[in-house]
Amino acid sequence: MSYGMIATWRMACDGIAAATQALAEGGSSQKAIVDAIKMVEDYPFYKSVGYGGLPNEVGMVELDAAFMNGDNFDIGAVAGSRSVKNPIVVAEKLSHERFNSFLVGDGVAKYAIKEGFELQNMLTERAKKTWQNRLEEIRHSNLSPYDGHDTVGMVALDQTGSMSCGTSSSGLFMKKEGRVGDSPLSGSGFYVDSEIGGATATGLGEDLMKGCLSYETVRLMGTGMHPQAAVQQATMDFAKRLERRKGKCGAFSLVAMNNQGEWGVATNVEFSFAVATDQLAPTIYLAYPAEDGGNPQIEVASQEWLDAYQARITAPIK
Predict the structure, then answer these.
(1) How many CB atoms lie within 10 A of CB 255?
(2) Which Pfam families does the UniProt entry name for this protein (predicted)?
């Protein structure tokens, strides 16, 4: 039977490469999501997820994460987590709880300690220096403090037909203390139904949460639409509505996969994503929005692009 994973951003590729190897050997979608997202959370050069994530306005890293099991709709989520090493692991554990399955702030660490999960200081020296530099830029150049909202989101399908999804993010760089975006919110940042498919989002959470686009994408797939058609319609229709009513629309990017392993992507900005299936080796793609609002232009990322990406994220911070 088919299996596969799709995920937002280049940073997800190593994780889904390892996780889809496990899927090929009969592993579960639930474990694939947790293991793949953990790899992203643990890599210190990814500045928008986990260890190395950029801090809020007071220099504190606050992390959000969520997990959903498409077989039974169980959801676990955390927001404003400050000291848990792998928020996705705690989110998955919380998905088994009948009550209190979404925890915030200090409650996340208290639960993690009780359950034996690892805690650590999540602020790296690199992230701290980036934060200090931004404070100087704001002070001297009157720049907007906000920058970056690259959530890692993944959807997985295993050989039994079970599907799961998950998200993890440090949120908007320089965000207000306690700010939460769409990433841990069911229907907005993520949604999955094993009888249909799943979707997950990245972009400006304050705008994404207005549309519940992950749920809408899954709903449309449930009517028989291919994931590409479903995610495109859900995303672009709402982006147009938001522009008409609010006068502007932030960055929107969504990925989707159905229970046959077919996939799709929609975006209103340049966007990278990764896919691996039983028919496709782990591949990093770039998507560019179409000027006429149609399906995005999608191309395989070149080695030149990949090399430049790696050089950029690992370059010394002065």
Answers:
(1) 34
(2) Asparaginase_2
Number of separate domains in the chain: 1
**Catalytic residue at 267?**
no
The Cα-based distances of 120 to 39, 207, 282 in angstroms read 16, 32, 31
**Tokens standing for 112?**
């993690």
Residue with tokens 């998200």: 167
Q: Where are the beta strands (DSSP E) in the chain?
A: 4-8, 63-69, 75-81, 102-104, 152-157, 163-169, 190-193, 197-203, 252-258, 263-267, 271-277, 280-288, 297-300
Sequence-ordered list of residues with C-beta below 8 angstroms from that of 235, at least 6 positions apart, any chain: 213, 217, 252, 254, 266, 267, 268
With CA atoms as reference, report the closest residue to 150 among 236, 271, 255. Answer: 271
- Strand 63-69 and strand 152-157: pairing? unpaired
Is residue 291 within 8 Å of residue 25, measured between CB atoms?
Answer: no
Tokens of 293: 């609002």
pLDDT exceeds cutoff 70 at 70: yes
Instruction: Specify the pTM.
Output: 0.96
Q: Which two tokens stand for residue 216?
A: 């809408």
Backbone φ and ψ for 265, nearest 5 degrees, come out as -150, 145
Q: Where is the binding site, in residues? A: 179-182, 202-205
Q: In this structure, are strands 271-277 and 263-267 parallel, antiparallel, or unpaired?
A: unpaired
- pLDDT tens column, 101-153: 999 999 999 999 999 999 999 999 999 999 999 998 888 876 666 666 689 99
The pLDDT value recorded for residue 137 is 87
Catalytic residue, candidates 20, 124, 130, 151 = 151
Q: Using the CB atoms, write b or e for 135-173: b if 16+ within 10 Å.
A: eeeeeeeeeeeeebbbbbbbbbbbbebbbbbbbbbbbbb
Which parts are annotated binding residues for substrate? 179-182, 202-205
At 290, which helix (H) or strand (E)?
Answer: none
Residue 293 sits in a domain of what CATH number? 3.60.20.30
What token pair was written down for 314?
């690992």
